[in-house]
């Protein structure tokens, strides 16, 4: 097929996969922005937003989040000083550079500019993750915490009047603020009778979210879940039930929550974004919805909602290392962490899994530990019923395989893209042994980078798989969109059910340029064998193993570090085998070096990698 026809065919296939209804929703939204004129003259809600702790409320003897005691913690990783106590919400907290478009209507502010750079650096403080932290401090007996909370919200409202400035640009960002305000009200026991300032602030946000929720729905990702949740929370708030808008918010939110959970969470529990971090965000969102529903004695959601929420819980539990709480660094990671009530590291997913297991599986995933703090802060008591351990698991809809033997766990990513892929990670493999991630995914670092870094972190070079002819596995059409979506076929598996048998899974795909990759994985208690068959390329194929940052020693046919040894064999001549420096991002806006073993062949063939420890 001529290249021009092939390109047109690829675009048509991508448009079909996105869906004509979703494309129409996006086009409608872009036309809507040309005529959108929401009120920018609304008065600022007057504080206080939260009242002082009642005399009958005894201090809670639970640990508080330490990240907001004397400074701040951004993206779960980066500490910042707050010398003026109340931050400037219209400047970059890392550089201090002010935002030039601070008073412009939000629909006139571009997504990415050289002036702002990564707009998420502006949004981060305005996500209100400090609101639950200050609520914790107040309930733990800090007499100044409520004043501090009210002062910060007042400063934010003054700097961010309705519909003006970058902090109103994204409906999901507004939704996250609503969720954190609601979570704080639950902790403070002020959700039944909030002060007027808080309900007015919630209504502000619902007015921003409701007119454009169709655009969020068109994304088929976390945006629609978050924005529907914010509308449901606002519309069901007892103090807003006399507001004529509240019924519309409630009905729209509830409808879209049900719709998004049924559509975006597959029967195997995987979520449409194919990302561990976004999966946690969505699961925390569903947990907050259910806690709110129970606290106000609202009607239950559908059986589908609870079934899918339970499956999503089980899937994240399958990915979470029970000893460390860490997960494979799969898919995009924007640094989100909702419901930040547990003073555990950002990459510890156990608090979220434990909370969801309590709500949707009626059990305990991990027993007693710091991961239970989140439950207790939200008024729940850990359950005695322990869930059965999770062994091998194949997620056919989402395109993942999890194999476990002994203290080793393997994640194999295979392409089954019902929704748009965020990364070119077909047949990527993660290996974790006793909590140590030996073979690693690169992460995403930032969404506003120069094209070379966007291509690197999202592309094939940032994954443990094979690259053909120095190109990516799929052509990039825009910052967040690939074309020619791949589809992989499972050749053998699911793995054996007996724990003393080797686990095995084999998958293959063929890309739009004709190159093919078949990967067969066999995991034993102390050994991993990966067999890669490659064909259909014209110049070269490069297999990469992105290794834990340690002192690796390279010999002619093997590479070793401590007790780990990797041997390489190939029936095609290896033209190059060397360790090069790569990059990984374990947290948003964090970039560190790691060693990458590259094995290059120029003929079709079979490469066998054996890891022994």
Task: Summarize the helices and strands and which ones pair or pack.
Layout: H1 3-18, H2 20-35, E1 71-74, E2 78-81, H3 120-123, H4 130-139, H5 145-159, H6 171-188, H7 196-209, H8 213-218, H9 222-236, H10 246-264, H11 276-295, H12 303-319, H13 350-361, H14 373-377, E3 393-395, E4 400-405, E5 408-413, E6 429-433, E7 436-439, H15 451-458, E8 466-468, E9 476-478, E10 481-482, E11 489-492, E12 503-510, E13 516-523, E14 527-535, E15 541-546, E16 553-554, E17 558-561, E18 564-570, E19 574-584, E20 592-601, E21 605-612
Antiparallel strand pairs: 1-2, 3-4, 4-5, 5-6, 6-7, 8-15, 9-10, 11-12, 12-13, 13-14, 14-21, 15-20, 16-17, 17-18, 18-21, 19-20
Could you explain how this protein is built, in words?
The structure is a single chain. The protein has 613 residues and is of the alpha+beta class. It has 2 domains: 36-363 and 373-377, Alpha/alpha barrel (Glycosyltransferase), CATH 1.50.10; 393-612, Beta-galactosidase, Chain A, domain 5 (Distorted Sandwich). It contains 15 helices and 21 strands. The protein has helices at 3-18, 20-35, 120-123, 130-139, 145-159, 171-188, 196-209, 213-218, 222-236, 246-264, 276-295, 303-319, 350-361, 373-377, 451-458, and strands at 71-74, 78-81, 393-395, 400-405, 408-413, 429-433, 436-439, 466-468, 476-478, 481-482, 489-492, 503-510, 516-523, 527-535, 541-546, 553-554, 558-561, 564-570, 574-584, 592-601, 605-612. The strands form 5 sheets. It has an 8-stranded antiparallel sheet with strand order 11-12-13-14-21-18-17-16, with no helix packed on it. Helix 9 (222-236) packs antiparallel against helix 10 (246-264), helix 9 runs parallel beside helix 11 (276-295) and helix 11 (276-295) crosses helix 13. The longest helix has 20 residues, at 276-295. The mean pLDDT is 92.
